[in-house]
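Worked example

This section walks through a single chain of length 144. The input is the sequence exactly as stored; nothing has been trimmed or padded.
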Amino acid sequence: MTAATSDIRFRRIPNRLSIVLAAIGIVRIGLTWGGSGADGALALDALFDMLAALALFLGGALLFAMGLFGGGDVKLLAATAVWLGRSAVPGMLVATAIAGGAIALVMLAWIAIARQRGRSPAHTSVPYGAAIALGGTLAAVGIV
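Given that input, the structure is written out below as tokens.
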């Protein structure tokens, strides 16, 4: 929620939040490694979790290069994938996309109202970190 609040207020997601989230995910992977099952299978699970996060990072980096995503959004998305693990990533992405669309609609309405009143809105970009935070939270609690 800190990432969401920061992105809404300042259009910035502090790096330390993404680092902590990714670190928690790496600890999760390490703790899972100690569970039951063949070491090879657990190593493969860990590898696939990290590859899912890398794929999201690379996709996000492409969106960043196109000017469609902020750098903090890219890092938060990848860190959230590490935290959740690959099995929760599809649900997180769907929930994030829906939340992002809803936030974009609210932003459009807010900008239109501000302009109608003769004001220039302070921010016109979509705080997508809030959508990522919501999507990650919903995936973590098993709603999606």
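What to look for: The two ends are 18 Å apart (CA to CA).
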